[in-house]
Fold these 4 entries.
Entry 1:
Amino acid sequence: MSDATSFDVIVIGAGPGGYVFAIRAAQLGLKVACVEKRATLGGTCLNVGCIPSKALLHSSEHFEEALHKLADHGVNVGSVSLDLARMQARKDEVVSANVKGVEFLFKKNKITWIKGEARITAPGAVEVAGKSYAAKQIVIATGSSSIDLPGVTVDEKQIVTSTGALELDKVPGHLVVIGGGYIGLELGSVWRRLGAEVTVVEFLDRLVPTMDGETGKMFERVMSKQGIKSKLKTKVTGAKADETGVTLTLEPAAGGEAETLKADVVLVAIGRRANTEGLGLAEVGVALDERGRVITDHFATNIDGIWAIGDVITGPMLAHKAEEEGVALAELLAGQAGHVNYGVIPGVVYTWPEVASIGETEEQLKARGVAYKVGKFPFTANARARAMGDTDGFVKILADATTDRVLGAHIIGPDAGTLIAEIAIAMEFGASSEDIARTCHAHPSLNESVKEAALAVEGRALHI
Ligand SMILES: Cc1cc2nc3c(=O)[nH]c(=O)nc-3n(C[C@H](O)[C@H](O)[C@H](O)COP(=O)(O)OP(=O)(O)OC[C@H]3O[C@@H](n4cnc5c(N)ncnc54)[C@H](O)[C@@H]3O)c2cc1C
């Protein structure tokens, strides 16, 4: 093997797991190559996930503000119209700047980008486009793809995955979203704001079912107030697309009489599955679990020298979880003590209001039999939220009844995704609710609601 084809480590996939792993490993002095089959770096997250969806969420928020909110602030903008082509072009510019940023970071850290689809031919050996590469260690960071729904054939035009839903060149009259998870609700919000009628069909009895129950109920109310209709406890059994649109066949989840629902565009967002096909895993003997994810123990697979991180292994399918794993594994391979605290990984739904959660829900604490106290504070009582005109929602902090240690927090409200970071740090430091309550928070800020919720744990909130 020449110097150009032999590495300390080859990581397969340049998503937030793979590219962050590559940077950290290079920082620690390892000779790193990253294989990516997509034309650009950054994986699902930067190309067709987190970043384009947030660009469209922001743009559509501005549109809705101009249409419905600015006049209340005394800002009259005259007639407002949508230039969807410009909005989409701006989203593409944001994506392009981000993926080029990763390319720059690869050059800066002297990471070799091998372009093409990788297959592991043996421990320590990877093949890309008919060429062989050697590495002491191999990391699988191949991410995930949208799950198909039987009977519903995706064409990325009328029946789309999230990738197609980010590219629509016309606002659909009626968008039906199959799956009430965060991806469906974020993209449903985008198109609802831009003028579509939106219906979410969900098999279970609630939207984002993993969410803390009380927060989830409020979230459903807010979504419904915004005009997003939901059909819960309903399953989609088929879809027929023609020039007039898509006709979906629905049935009650528990079985019963079928009905039809007509849509212009259908978004299938029922979850994501690990990308393990074509990687040669069966031939090399890498074990997968019942859901097709690579089985790992501290990122090690059952085969020596082969590791895995990110969406392709167990745990929440989130970019920051993949990044944390990338850093931890790079540090482990460089002889350090890499570690991820899975109890403190925030989850955010970037609708407006946003929903953010961390740690355990009330339902989980009850199931574990943990005695806990609840401190809650509504944004209606927060001066900054009132000044902004964004008072929907609350902050809820759950603390251990005996030790007062913060066990979880659930926020629905303006900028919840930013507010949750304060609680993540508190939880990393093993803080009590009193630690947060006794920390000086700037006034007037949304963060004061976090402090007030912490005060409310002991029944001593000041502003309510
Ligand atoms: C619409 C949408 C919105 C999202 N929004 C958020 C959000 O707001 N926040 C959040 O935290 N998460 C979000 N996610 C999830 C997030 O994108 C993923 O959790 C994250 O990208 C996982 O990172 P990863 O590195 O494991 O894999 P990926 O980002 O999927 O990257 C894997 C890469 O591996 C490449 N690859 C696969 N197989 C091979 C092979 N054999 N050879 C070479 N290359 C290969 C793929 O082309 C891909 O680029 C969103 C996802 C979607 C779809």
Note: The longest strand covers residues 131-140.
Entry 2:
Amino acid sequence: MSENTAPLPDFTRWPSFPFEGDMRVKKLAPPVEVEPPRSGEDASDCVACGTPDDAYIWVSERWRVRSMDRPTGLPMVLILECRSHLDLGDLPNLLAAELGVMTVRLERAVRSLDGVARVHVNRWGDGSAHLHMWFLARPYGRLQLRGTFLTLWDDILPVIPEHQWSENLAHVAAWLADFGGRAIAEPAHIQWESPATFTVPTFATTTPEADDSQRPKTLDDVQAASAAADSDVRVTGPHDIAEPGRPLNFPESGPEAGPGSAATTTAAAVDPAHNQSA
Ligand SMILES: [Zn+2]
């Protein structure tokens, strides 16, 4: 039977399904005999293991939390990693127990952000070998984003303002640091708008401004960019970025640099360090 005639599954009619119009089910590729290795299968070339702490938003003796390298469509997208080069099923009891604690703690931290209704916690593990748990925040009131397709919506929504994203990262980092470890992400600085006026960034989560020129900027975009930049890195999972350590917060930052000074022109526009003469 042709794949074109296969009935569409029920979920295509769910309110949360992001697409409409004519669709058909893809032809299923035949299974491979032997699956290819994931990125960083060997610790010696694992990106996560080779990434320094200052690329993360918070670190501790055994755990680290990082963000995407750019604002996301969702209010927050974070990844929790253990320091040890292990996958989920390999964790010894100590780390397994701590994973539970860290999962609860990080969920609560992200849910404490203004405008966040729910936090989805996911582990796919098809792309990179080093354990990485995804934490994706669903914006409050956006009932259409509930459930299965939240990761797809992240790429569809306009990205949140960069200053708000930085504030959110700093808030989560500070929350985690209250329990231990060290916050790397810092609060954004005051935004100088003119010599006479200024506003203090707030956590207010508003409907993201439409900014299609900035899209896409999130999970799948990172996948695509990574795959294009390095054909050795395989992207085998729909939600697994190929290089867990690469899409970093502050790729060129020094030790004193925070998210407000992330190396982007947008950050420079809101960073008083770049606008003192304005
Ligand atoms: Zn590793």
Note: The domain at 46-274 is CATH 3.30.428.10 (HIT family, subunit A).
Entry 3:
Amino acid sequence: MKRVLISFSGGLDSTYLVYDNLKNGNIVTGVYTTIENNVNKTRVELNQIKKLEKLFLEEFPNNFNLEIGMKINAQSGNDVTMKQISIWIISLLYSRSSTYDEVQIGAVMNDDMISFLDDIKNLWDAFSFVVPKKTPLIFPLMKKSKCEISNLLPQKYKDLVVFCEDPKIINDIPLLFENCNNCHSCKRYKYESDLWGLTYGQIQQNISDSDPAAYPTYPTIKIMGSDVDLEPAENVNIH
Ligand SMILES: [Zn+2]
């Protein structure tokens, strides 16, 4: 049994990574990092990960713990990949990473992130001085394809997976959303479903009844140009 910290976005890859660790008897903390400049996406993701949390706890009682990590304000046109990665690293370090045996990120084969793996490892090492004990950073899904993990993840979890970068909110309370069918992720989903018959997520979802106050929050990080400022945490509002 290992204590594992996972960067958990509610997407297919990180949901599978959490599930696989739980299935292997590990104790998992999933850290969700909020991207503030995409309000709809954040609302949808938070709602879905709270539903996923409920399912994980039903199947693996006491072994899963959800943390809402840092809020990030990434106001920067196209070049957000490296900035987002820096933020995940900081967010993971903030989450008392030293108290875990491993920190895991769910990058799969052909993921955009794969070409940044060395950078991510370097960042991890560079930032590690801020915590008392350096914890190994692992990418367990690197040699798995999206298709493979989609086949391994039970349907009840797949149904809750989020992928759209720009979901449309069609009703506030209870929350109903619609995928945009036009963003990079929606297009990739269409490609994958046409090519491999992958199905995950749903066109519409309604919402959770969880209490946002029950989740710890960390400071906001603002990324504008190259400036990084820490700001006090605010409450995350979920309906
Ligand atoms: Zn979309």
Note: The chain has one domain: 3-153+211-231.
Entry 4:
Amino acid sequence: MEEFDKRKRKTHAMAKITYVEHGGTEHTVEVASGLTVMEGARDNNIPGIEADCGGACACSTCHVYIHPDWVEKVPAKDDMEEDMLDFAFEPDPARSRLTCQIKVTDELDGLVVQMPEKQI
Ligand code: FES
């Protein structure tokens, strides 16, 4: 029952997120609030986000560049994410984020993220 309630809570709100591959191919999907931006990509089989560590902020292979219009709207990164981003491929201090550290909320409806040329 608790499991059911948790699922219900997760699925009642959705945010539309657009993942843009390095080559420009766009994937727009609905992601449930409470999941991470990485989980949204993984669950929808979107290529370009590998997430080797499964979301533990320990691999940097879920790296993306946040679209400039969204940089200010995404909650700030913590020190652990900041450190791990040093291991990402060509990180951009202003726009790079690890998608496993960004929780989807209603406020992120419309978010656009761009994948790097490669992960690591
Ligand atoms: S999935 Fe490994 S750091 Fe995000």
Note: The longest strand covers residues 14-20.
